[in-house]
Amino acid sequence: MIIDTHTHFGEPSRPNDLLHRTELPVVYEELAVPEGVTGTVVVEARMGLEEIAWLSGLAEDDPFIVGIVGDVEPSSETFAADLESVAGNPLLVGVRYHDRCCRDDRAAAASATDAAWRRTLQSAELLAARDMELDLHITHKRIDLVIELAMRVPELRLVVNHIAESRPLEPKGVNSRWAEDIHRLGEYPRVYCKVSNLVQITGLHPVPADVGFYAPTLDVLWETFGEDRLIYGSNWPQIERTSDYATAQRIVAEYFGSKGQRASEQFFWQNAQDVYKWPQRD
After folding, report:
1. φ/ψ bin of 38: left (φ > 0), alpha (ψ from -120 to 50), beta (otherwise)
2. N or C: which end of the chain has fewer CB within 10 A?
3. For 80-96, what is each residue's pLDDT tens digit?
4. Rounded CA separation 183/226 (Å)
5. What is the CATH number of the domain that holds 245?
6. Quick one: average pLDDT of 164-179?
7. Total domains in the fold of the chain
8. Using an 8 Å Cβ cutoff, are 163 and 217 in contact?
9. What are phi and psi of 194, to 5 degrees?
């Protein structure tokens, strides 16, 4: 079993869609099923509650979609009401927080003193109470936000997206600042890391296809999170800007396969099930 926990579906004709081409489940499955993928957790590709309804509509006739991470903005003043309006959807397994530094590098950084950040902390408590998770789209420079969430709401499952968006590899090896920041997360047992976007963040064209190139980065993640807190995600279709789907998956399959059968199973589906707790689908 392989569950890809980071895919995006969308159509450019839809308002506010962040994708630039039509990408629907049938297209994704043609690529993923031959690689052994058995299901996907879809992550929002546009802002707004309408996205959750649209994705749920796609999932009605396609059990390949096992869960949805929706856009219910945790910093919003209306978060509680917005969450209440969609929380009855069994496929909604979590929501995603976008740090402003990820969405717009020119924006002022959020801090614990910001009203928006205080609302985010309150929203985290509501998610924990509903046994939902929170995906975090951040850079490694914002690890303090993850740590504060982990300390304030220790029962909440947190998933750092895209290995904390950065370029962890430098000409002389792993970015030491990135490694130090990642290691800080190791002591918080409900913080997970999604190994997604791995080939994209190299910044190279074409990307290296040899697992050895990525091993130093993956070693840092393995040392920090071990076999029980790392999760597979492809970031399709964005991944195709730099690599084909099969190559990107093979890289992580080789690495985690070398750690043993249990580690591979944990990485490819079991840890994701523990985090997202998607409903059983036929």
Report:
1. alpha
2. C
3. 999 999 999 999 999 99
4. 11
5. 3.20.20.140
6. 78
7. 1
8. yes
9. -90, 120
Concatenating the DSSP letter of every residue in 143-180 gives HHHHHHHHHHSTTSEEEEGGGTSS--EETTEE-HHHHH
**Highest mean pLDDT (candidates 57-61, 195-199, 231-235):** 231-235
> Looking at residue 106, what is its pLDDT?
34
Q: Tokens 């308002």 identify what position?
A: 15
Of residues 73, 81, 62, the one with CA closest to residue 16 = 73
Two tokens at 34? 């031959």
CA distance 240 to 189: 33
Assess if residue 281 is contained within a domain: no
Give the residue numbers spanning the domain of 141: 3-276
pLDDT of residue 186: 95
84 three-class SS: helix
Task: Say what the pLDDT of residue 203 is.
Answer: 78
Close Cβ partners of 85 (under 8 Å, ≥ 6 residues apart):
49
The pLDDT value given to residue 16:
54
Q: Which residues contact 258 (CB under 8 A, 6 or more apart)?
A: none
Residue 223: count of CB within 10 angstroms of its CB: 12
